[in-house]
Give the backbone structure.
Amino acid sequence: MSSSPSPDHLRAVNLPAEWAPASWRQRTALQLPTYPDAAALESTLQELHALPPLVTSWEILALKKQIADAQEGKRFILQGGDCAETFDGCTSEVISNRLKVLLQMSLVLVHGLRLPVVRIGRFAGQYAKPRSADTETKGDVTLPSYRGDIVNGPEFTVEARTPDPRRMIKAHARSAMTMNFVRSLIDGGFADLHHPEYWNLSWVGHSPLADEYRHMVEGIGDAVRFMETLSGSEVHNLNRVDFYTSHEALLLPYEEGQTREVPRQWGWFNLSTHFPWIGMRTAQLDGAHVEYFRGIRNPIGLKVGPSVTPDQLLRVIDVLNPDDEPGRLTLIHRMSATGIADKLPSLLDAVKREGRRVLWICDPMHGNTESTSNGYKTRRFRNIRSELEQAFDLHAAAGTRLGGVHLELTGEDVTECLGGARELTESDLERAYLSTVDPRLNYEQALEIAMLIVRKQSQIATPA
Ligand code: PEP
Ligand code: CO
């Protein structure tokens, strides 16, 4: 993870008026659990407040600077990871496999786009989930919905489903362990470009994409050796990469507990993650989440769904980035393959017309969720692909830039999304469907997305 301090604190950005880490409590907060034991909640929040932060302000400001570069077309953002992390999934294997996929994808992107890639994991804190209903009913039993491991458990029992504040302490600890392992792997040379074989996943030897990937890695290896022969020494900075963390900052009591002032900086930082984002269901202009986010200095994301009008979008931009600060605001559009051509252009035009400074990235996953006849929540690779390809075309037509992607993926050999190079079918879903929430791209499908981004971008750069 990056460590160079940024001169960002010298910028003339105004302090948000009448804001405090707890001012969101005066607004309507959607998607929050009801904790039955108020005293237990209060003592947990006090404990959380005293625990050390997970990231530092200078890492946060370094990322903001990189996002500002991406706004100018000098970097590409790769944001990806699980829909929801689980406490049980905090294992060496799950963490390192997810890192391997993200590293391989970023290598494909760096090589193909000829741009530095900013890697942002959906991990080390992605434990809270919005749900479409507050309760779930089976037979004649109704219980609170599962809202992610930071709130309650997925099992359909009263005990598991009752929101437990102690889970926040566990989530903080699991996030710290995840971050610690990622940092150690990277500092220890896991991401060294001299050794991309460290990132190979054992189960992919026979992937239909393996040849293309191997070919590219060999080409990069040759280029590195050539440069080292020419210069007579090792090329530095190939042995480490920056990695940032992100999660949906949904559970506001938890986020408030990790919101701090730090020495030699003005303002407040959310120190539980580098890049928190606002989910689609909690993006109301006058809601608690927008209130909380407007006061923190992190770079932030905002999911933009198909129901948002240009006028609503401009008003929320005014609240979240009133000073048009570079790097501050990333808009993550998630429209669906069938809706994007209809919904996106007017938003792109409005933001461009008003000259607002944002980074646009595409989440081609969340608009394309469907249920199969055998009862699985899935996504079709061809729809994910189609939304992403249309996004590139629509931005090109509007004269705006698609600066990154936001994906749900895993390094595990799962069968959750249909299609892709191995053409997974509905009956394959039964083999390895592990997600407790949304279906993720497996390694091969994720790598295929990276390859198609490169192909699409080069078509746009050199139209036929
Ligand atoms: C998510 O990113 O897992 C999610 C719930 O997305 P959205 O808010 O866009 O529906
Ligand atoms: Co999801």
Notes: The chain has one domain: 40-132+168-191+240-461. Residues 2-10 have pLDDT under 50 and may be disordered.
